[in-house]
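Translate structure to sequence.
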């Protein structure tokens, strides 16, 4: 929610208010099934969306369904299941049109509920349904789906999924869109936190300037009449703006050079083809495992990093390093730190 409010206000405005406890109880009575806690938590944040820019807000371009649409879709498929006469003989999920435990929560868009995602409240899996009665497992659990979405938004350069977060007319649109016209208007969101601007002191400003700009700064500073407050303020403001611009350009260079696919090895080694494209002033290199672990400021986050490392196979190390490097950088910013802790602590399935 905080991410949408900050980066994509039109999308944030398209969200419906959170459901009340009474509304969720009424939905459970209508469906005849208990709603898992993780889905309740999602609906307490928002009970659906209106859709914006022809796209859903959820990962994969799915739209979060309003609760009345959830009930309508569940009842429709249960009627079809009963008409098919198989609800007493079905032995495999692949043969079922629908089961009471399948709770839809995303659809193609708010007006098209022929395709979507449902949560199997018995297994915890997130699956896709289509109008042709196709049923495919998409994610291990709802927390896994939401975590992938959160990481894709907060650390898009490390996102492993095919869908990338982007902007179209200020709204979140997962893409790139297949249509050429929409693709031309779509901008990939790179997700960096705003660069840290230098303090408005001569020393901090000079330190933030690129090397070839410091000689001009020194020359004007030495010629400055310190008894003239207006001249001092003008000098400071001028060079502070130059320092800010230099930092922003550097961040843009970093994003363009990395492009989400730099092959990193422990110990700050880059593949030669990527080393060649990095700008000379680049500051950020994928660090070693020890550096990443030290930068993760919370013990439980470090434990998750160690677990991922133990479970990874060597060919996956580059992607793992980049993902956790981005997370470590995010944690240096208070806003990013809160987001990372929410992902690690609150969006994982038990066990």
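Result:
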């Amino acid at each position: 929610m905080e991410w949408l409010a900050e980066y994509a206000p039109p999308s944030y405005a398209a969200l419906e208010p959170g459901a009340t406890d009474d509304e969720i109880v009424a939905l459970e009575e209508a469906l005849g099934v208990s709603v898992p806690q993780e889905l309740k938590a999602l609906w307490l944040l928002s009970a659906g969306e209106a859709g914006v820019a022809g796209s859903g807000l959820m990962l994969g371009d799915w739209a979060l369904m309003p609760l009345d649409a959830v009930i309508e879709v569940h009842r429709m498929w249960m009627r079809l299941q009963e008409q098919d006469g198989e609800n007493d003989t079905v032995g495999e999920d692949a043969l079922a049109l629908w089961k009471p435990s399948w709770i839809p929560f995303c659809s193609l868009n708010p007006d098209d509920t022929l395709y979507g995602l449902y949560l199997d409240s018995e297994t915890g899996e997130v699956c896709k349904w289509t109008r042709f009665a196709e049923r495919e497992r998409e994610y291990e659990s709802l927390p896994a789906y939401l975590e992938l979405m959160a990481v894709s938004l907060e650390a898009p350069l490390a996102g492993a999924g095919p869908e990338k977060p982007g902007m179209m007319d200020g709204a979140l649109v997962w893409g790139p869109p297949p249509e050429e016209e929409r693709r031309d208007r779509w901008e990939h969101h790179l997700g960096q936190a705003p660069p840290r601007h230098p303090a408005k002191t001569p020393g901090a400003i000079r330190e933030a300037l690129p090397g070839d700009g410091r000689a001009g700064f020194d020359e004007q500073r030495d010629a400055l009449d310190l008894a003239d407050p207006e001249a001092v303020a003008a000098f400071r403001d001028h060079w502070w703006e130059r320092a800010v611009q230099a930092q922003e350009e550097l961040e843009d260079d970093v994003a363009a050079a990395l492009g989400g696919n730099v092959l990193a090895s422990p110990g700050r080694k880059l593949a030669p083809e990527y080393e060649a494209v990095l700008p000379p002033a680049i500051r950020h290199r994928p660090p070693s495992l020890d550096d990443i672990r030290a930068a993760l400021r919370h013990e439980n986050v470090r434990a998750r990093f160690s677990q991922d490392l133990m479970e990874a196979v060597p060919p996956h190390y580059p992607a793992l390093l980049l993902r956790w490097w981005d997370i470590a950088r995010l944690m240096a910013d208070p806003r990013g730190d809160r987001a990372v802790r929410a992902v690690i602590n609150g969006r994982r399935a038990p066990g």
